[in-house]
Specification:
The protein contains 9 helices and 12 strands. With about 450 residues, it is α+β, with helices and mostly antiparallel strands. The chain folds into 3 domains: about 140 residues, PAS domain (Beta-Lactamase, 2-Layer Sandwich); about 90 residues, Signal transduction histidine kinase, dimerisation/phosphotransfer (DHp) domain (Helix Hairpins, Orthogonal Bundle), CATH 1.10.287.130; about 140 residues, 2-Layer Sandwich (Heat Shock Protein 90), CATH 3.30.565.10. Strands 6, 7, 8, 9, 10, 11 and 12 form a 7-stranded mixed sheet that branches. A hairpin with a 2-residue loop joins strand 4 and strand 5. Helix 1 packs antiparallel against helix 4.
Length: about 450
């Protein structure tokens, strides 16, 4: 602000000086024109009456010079001393000039002179008129004094106003800072106060409040995840401990020991699978789930998954079929894709009934891999949460699982840039993953329109 005020003061000072100079020059030019007209009529000198006309109290300087420097005529106070130097006179003989000089004898005021050439009957003469710069100097001195007094006052007032304005603008920031300092996980739901104005600070506060909401939701999901994981781990650990304690409580036959070890092995397998699933979920949350896509026929992928689960299906008396066009190809990580499809098949074996069908179909540049069964389907309220960790449906579709199978399916699908879905059909359920496909230029079949699959 000090720089701004100084620049403005300098501008006003120079502007006023230029305006005063322009006013003086205009007055001098008018007087020079009058004097030139008198010189043209009089020849080389001025009559006493004309000289008195040019010798008014505030315009008392006038002089007529010959090109040689001799004074042809002059107002009385100048005597025979020329107002111009030889160089100035030579220039004034050619064109009108304006110059400044110091005071003349018997005066303390500097002068501003205007000299212009005049063609008189006796030859070319130079008419010089002058005016005192005392009033100009006084006006500039007054302005300078006012600037030197008013400038610091204006600087102080503007600084106070700027400080007050900045304090008022930053007061909501301080309130938000204090509230943010008090926000903690122990008090969910706290939000930053927002100023009434719809400005940048208000929009920043809205954005931060939205971020706090997302963080609270993430923290709630993490707490729920830890609680569910602890619960799921407690069950197999308790069963394993019970089996081992019973086996050690008294002497057992070899057959009883084998049964105890077999039961303990089953619980250990369940613990191992749960740990693997938790590791997969942790990796995807950290953005580190590795996938190595490769070109893979959809039929080959479905056939490999069927080979792993066909024994269980046969033992359960469940027909297991695969349908896939040989021309459909995907760009997926084989092991991860088999894991995701295996979880869908395992879910159908655990909770479904009747025939199981795996089939692939193209949807634009994507390949959908479906697993259908003829069971009771998903509970309607469970469908929106089917792919969340530790989600269980109604009793008809819950069992000994950990609730991570479908969550792993969703994680693997998203790691490939795809999605996971589940719907109920008329007498069954359809769960599928949508993965990136490889377009075959020879395949001109239009994408199939999914309107729901018929009962198997």
């Amino acid at each position: 602000m000090a720089v701004v005020l100084a620049v403005m003061g300098l501008f006003l000072y120079l502007r006023l000086g230029a305006a005063l100079d322009a006013t003086i020059d205009q007055s001098l030019r008018g007087r020079a024109d009058d004097l030139a007209a008198l010189v043209r009529r009089a020849g080389s000198g001025l009559s006493e009456a004309n000289r008195n006309r040019l010798a008014e109290p505030d315009e008392s300087l006038a002089q007529v010079l010959q090109p040689s420097g001799a004074v042809a005529d002059s107002t009385p106070q100048l005597g025979g001393r020329p107002l111009l130097t030889n160089a100035q006179l030579a220039k004034a003989a050619e064109q009108t000039i304006v110059v400044e000089r110091g005071p003349v004898p018997d005066s303390d005021d500097p002068l501003r002179l205007l000299a212009t050439p005049v063609d008189a009957p006796a030859g070319r003469l130079v008419v010089v008129v002058g005016a005192s710069l005392e009033e100009r100097a006084e006006a500039l001195e007054n302005l300078l004094a006012q600037l030197l007094i008013g400038g610091p006052v204006a600087l102080a007032l503007s600084s106070l106003a700027g400080y007050a304005l900045a304090a008022a603008a930053l007061r909501p920031v301080e309130s938000m800072r204090q509230e943010a300092d008090a926000v903690s996980a122990a008090e969910p739901g706290r939000r930053l106060p927002l100023p009434p104005a719809n400005d940048e600070i208000a929009r920043l506060g809205t954005t931060l409040n939205t971020m706090l909401g997302r963080l609270e939701s993430a923290l709630a999901r993490e707490r729920r995840f830890v609680s569910d994981a602890s619960h799921e781990l407690r069950t197999p650990l308790a069963a394993l401990r019970t089996e081992l304690e019973l086996a050690l409580r008294r002497e057992r036959t070899p057959q009883e020991l084998r049964e105890a070890v077999r039961s303990a092995a089953e619980e250990t397998e369940r613990l191992w699978q749960l740990a693997e699933d938790l590791l997969v979920l942790a990796r995807i949350d950290a953005g580190k789930l590795p996938v190595r896509p490769e070109r893979l026929p959809a039929g080959e992928l479905l056939a490999d998954v069927r080979a792993r689960y066909v024994r269980r299906a046969v033992e359960a008396g469940r027909p297991f079929q695969v349908e896939a066009d040989d021309r459909l190809e995907l760009a997926v990580d084989r092991l991860r894709a088999e894991q995701a499809l295996g979880n869908l098949v395992d879910n159908a074996l655990r909770h479904g009934r009747g025939r199981i069908l795996m089939h692939a179909q193209r949807q634009h540049d994507r390949i959908e891999l479906h697993v259908l069964d003829e069971g009771p389907g998903f509970a309607p309220e469970f469908l929106p949460h089917a792919f969340e960790p530790f989600s269980h449906g109604d009793p008809a579709r819950t069992g000994a699982g950990t609730g991570l199978g479908l969550a792993i399916v969703d994680v693997i699908a998203r790691a490939h840039g795809g999605t996971a879905h589940a719907v109920n059909l008329d007498g069954g359920a359809d769960a599928w993953i949508e993965l990136p496909g490889i377009l075959d230029p020879a395949d001109h079949q239009p994408p199939q329109r999914r309107t729901g699959h018929k009962r198997l």
